[in-house]
Amino acid sequence: MMYVSFLSQAQRESTSVLTFFKLTKDFLSMLSEAHYLTCESIIQMLEDKNLVKYFLDAQYDLVLTDPAVAGGVVLAKYLKLPLVLNVRWITSGDGQFAIAPSPLSYIPVPGSGLTDKMSFMQRVKNMLFYSLIVFQQSILVGPHYDAICDKYIEGGCDIMTLLQEADIWLFRSDFVFDFPRPTMPNVVYIGGYQCKPSQPLPAELEEFVQSAGEHGVVLMTLGTLVKALPSEIADEIASVFSKMPQKVTVWSLLTF
Q: Closest Cα partner for 253 from 225, 218, 232?
């Protein structure tokens, strides 16, 4: 959510380089604080012998966790349980840069606004965006988790290696919208797995859709990200819909 807010504000104020760097600094600082708090929670869990005993006695089969906040990754290593990762984002951005060959000359960093066809200057820009990922992992995020590994994991470890060693990675990505590249054998792409077969519309909505005639219906849904949508952008979207020749818009603002 905060990443979407950051990108939205950065793109709207992209005419100012200083503004972009200020936003980047604020975002990275907030990100570092979030991972620090996560690691503090993990330390409290591992220091609680009764809680650790409960985990061990429960004899769980595996740990299914989100790698974007990697507390579960460390916990799986500590409990010596198989690790299954969900989604595509890790502690330092897009997970594909951790598990797949990603030549920066034609693999754009998410958020750069680039494609796989880049000029020389665009490749320089792509490299700068990638340097933020490296900085984020090596300076702002990695040390928080690595400190836990050094103290609580026999033999030590680092968070990037733990991510790469996951037993299964259910990677939410779809090659229809992404740039394909080879990956490790433990990665399973599950883009679109949340989609379900269509169901008949409620009677009132069906009547509305049928009344649209030849113009059809525009369905716009933002899911949970609607909370990160700036009010001025929401107003601009609504003004576009209001100028349509007929009432043909269904604007779904889901907030759950």
A: 225
CA distances to 1, 72, 89 from 227, in Å: 8, 26, 20
Measured between its terminal Cα atoms, the distance across the chain in Å is 13
For residue 62, the Cα-to-chain-centroid distance in whole angstroms is 22
Percent of the chain residues topping a pLDDT of 70: 80
Tell me the longest C-alpha to C-alpha distance in the chain: 67
Same domain for 182 and 210, yes or no, is: no
Q: What is the pLDDT of residue 246?
A: 57
pLDDT in tens, 32-71: 888 899 999 999 999 999 999 999 999 999 999 999 889 9
* Structural domain containing residue 219: 203-252
pLDDT band at 254 (very low <50, low <70, confident <90, very high): very low
Q: What span, in angstroms and rounded, lies between the C-alpha atoms of 105 and 116?
A: 8
Q: How far apart are CA 41 and CA 22, in angstroms?
A: 29
The residues, ordered by sequence, that sit 6+ positions from 250 with a Cβ below 8 Å of its Cβ are 205, 208, 209, 217, 218, 219, 220
Band (81; pLDDT cuts 50, 70, 90): very high
CA 69 to CA 75: how far, in whole Å?
Answer: 12
Q: In terms of domains, do 21 and 123 share one? A: yes
**Which residue, 166, 189, 212, sits at the end of a domain?**
189
pLDDT at 3 over 90: no
Query: Within this chain, do residues 41 and 156 fall inside the same structural domain, yes or no?
Result: yes
Given 189, 216, 236, the domain boundary residue is: 189
Burial classification of residue 126, based on how many CB atoms lie within 10 Å of its CB (0-12 exposed, 13-18 middle, 19 or more buried): buried
